[in-house]
């Protein structure tokens, strides 16, 4: 099919490339000229495993093109809206300016019978509002909402082989068109839920609310473990054996971040309040608070580890991205910890395999070091805050001689305390003795 993908960020660039890889003819549109220039040259503007390969093969095949001109989307039968929906400055609500602007820009270019498919995460009610606008301006066209569940770091696989497909539609024809687009996944047995707009919009925010709650639940247990000498990792293993609970997403640590979970739970609360149902999701405020307290806990542990002050002490911060296998530093707990330590006077040296460029743009006041070895050299304290494989695999005996003082705070509970202690380190995890 002929497809346009409007908004070529972490979601849209992968979606456009994956759709072309599946055989569709795709044009990616974005207002960011630099990004479009990179994509058109088959260079991913961000780090995502597997993206370089499909971007290269899809552009070489001629099935994938990019443009900053919305008029180039005119030939498409289906238009995916994949623009950002960040948190509004000074409020918890989602900022829908980009969705509204992209939608309005697209309207004059819609071919007869075109299908507009929302992928962005939006407050419930947005699709109905946009469908009403479409009925006014382009009544021949239809709207669907098809929320995206990809995980950064696994985005290509998650797009080509999703766990499930959710279509929020107003008629069967829209569902049939989406089936044609996702034929390969459907043939491979991917479950598909066809529903109304409101349910589709809510599925996405409910899923993120659940995941955020699961993480904050185990982090709340970590707080109790810290007060009692219990070990939250053993607790998670033990409760995780119950299939109703499950072990995944029960990793206590510095908490969640990124461009989705934090802003999505806040936007959900804000929307529920608008609907007069704020009480129903009031717990999400607690989920957010527990999450932010964990960042503070890491900072407090750092101060404690250095005898009451980090001032003028050299702290190696391992990781700046919000998760491994991504260069995304949006609302990153790791970067937040680094900035807070710097604010307390520490000589922070932050390192990361992929995130340094983005981190430097946001926080030029921090010192960055590409080499882990150099970041560790002469450190008074090591703080691991993003669980990159490289950091998980550090040999405590090897790195012992690099640092000035062998103390490590494992903000992701991914190091083996026994082997680090055996190698002469003072080890502090979160919620574990
Ligand atoms: P992003 O900021 O990386 O990308 C958004 C892109 O939209 C940017 O490149 C921006 O230049 C472009 N844009 C803004 N206004 C535009 C316009 N008028 N016309 C064309 N392009 C425009 O954001 P993202 O992480 O890709 O997220 C996009 C949406 O997908 C959000 O709603 C997000 O919540 C949702 N989502 C993201 C992920 C993820 O893991 N990143 C997963 C699922 C859902």
TrEMBL record:
Locate the residues binding substrate. 149-152, 204, 249-253, 257, 323
Originating species: Agromyces kandeliae
In the record, what terms sit under GO molecular function? NAD binding; UDP-glucose 6-dehydrogenase activity
- Write down the SMART domains for this protein, in alphabetical order: UDPG_MGDP_dh_C
Which residues bind NAD(+) per the record? 30, 35, 85, 121, 152, 263, 330
| Keywords (A to Z) from UniProt | NAD, Oxidoreductase
Lineage runs: Bacteria, Bacillati, Actinomycetota, Actinomycetes, Micrococcales
Q: Which Gene3D superfamilies does the protein's record reference?
A: Cytochrome c1, transmembrane anchor, C-terminal (1.20.5.100), NAD(P)-binding Rossmann-like Domain (3.40.50.720)
Query: Transmembrane stretches, by residue range?
Result: none
Specify the protein name: UDP-glucose 6-dehydrogenase
Q: Which residues form the active site?
A: 260 (nucleophile)
* Listed pathway(s): Nucleotide-sugar biosynthesis; UDP-alpha-D-glucuronate biosynthesis; UDP-alpha-D-glucuronate from UDP-alpha-D-glucose: step 1/1
One Pfam annotation reads UDPG_MGDP_dh_C
């Amino acid at each position: 099919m002929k497809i346009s993908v409007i908004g070529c960020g972490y979601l849209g660039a992968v979606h456009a490339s994956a759709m072309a890889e599946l055989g569709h003819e795709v044009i990616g549109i974005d207002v960011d000229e630099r990004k479009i220039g990179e994509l058109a040259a088959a260079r991913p503007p961000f780090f995502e495993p597997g993206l370089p390969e499909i971007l290269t093969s899809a552009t070489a095949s001629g099935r994938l093109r990019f443009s900053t001109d919305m008029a180039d989307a005119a030939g498409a039968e289906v238009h995916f809206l994949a623009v950002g929906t960040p948190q509004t400055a000074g409020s918890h609500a989602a900022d829908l300016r980009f969705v509204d602007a992209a939608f309005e820009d697209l309207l004059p270019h819609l071919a007869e019978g075109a299908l507009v498919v929302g992928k962005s995460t939006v407050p419930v009610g947005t699709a109905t509002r946009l469908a009403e606008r479409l009925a006014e301006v382009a009544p021949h066209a239809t709207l669907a909402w098809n929320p995206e569940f990809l995980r950064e770091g696994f985005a290509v696989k998650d797009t080509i082989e999703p766990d499930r497909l959710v279509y929020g539609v107003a008629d069967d024809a829209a569902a049939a068109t989406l089936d044609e687009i996702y034929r390969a996944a459907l043939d491979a047995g991917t479950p598909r839920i066809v529903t109304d707009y409101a349910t589709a919009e809510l599925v996405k925010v409910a899923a993120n609310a659940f995941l955020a709650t699961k993480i904050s639940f185990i982090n709340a247990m970590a707080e109790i473990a810290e007060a009692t000498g219990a070990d939250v990792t053993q607790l998670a293993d033990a409760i995780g054996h119950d299939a109703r609970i499950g072990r995944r997403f029960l990793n206590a640590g510095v908490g969640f971040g990124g461009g989705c979970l934090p802003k999505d739970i806040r936007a959900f609360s804000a929307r529920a309040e608008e609907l007069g149902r704020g009480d129903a999701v009031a717990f999400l405020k607690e989920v957010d608070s527990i999450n932010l307290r964990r960042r503070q806990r890491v900072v407090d542990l750092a101060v404690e580890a250095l005898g009451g002050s980090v001032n003028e002490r050299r702290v190696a911060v391992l990781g700046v991205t919000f998760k491994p296998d991504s260069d995304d530093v949006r609302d990153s707990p790791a970067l937040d910890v680094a900035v807070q330590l710097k604010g307390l006077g520490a000589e922070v040296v932050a390192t990361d395999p992929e995130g340094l460029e983005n981190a430097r743009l946001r926080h030029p006041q921090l010192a960055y070091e590409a080499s882990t070895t150099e970041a560790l050299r002469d450190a008074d304290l090591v703080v691991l805050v993003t669980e990159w494989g490289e950091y998980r695999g550090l040999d405590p005996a090897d790195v012992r001689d690099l640092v000035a003082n062998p103390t490590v705070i494992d903000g992701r509970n991914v190091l083996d305390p026994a082997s680090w202690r055996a190698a002469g380190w003072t080890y502090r995890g979160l919620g574990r003795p």
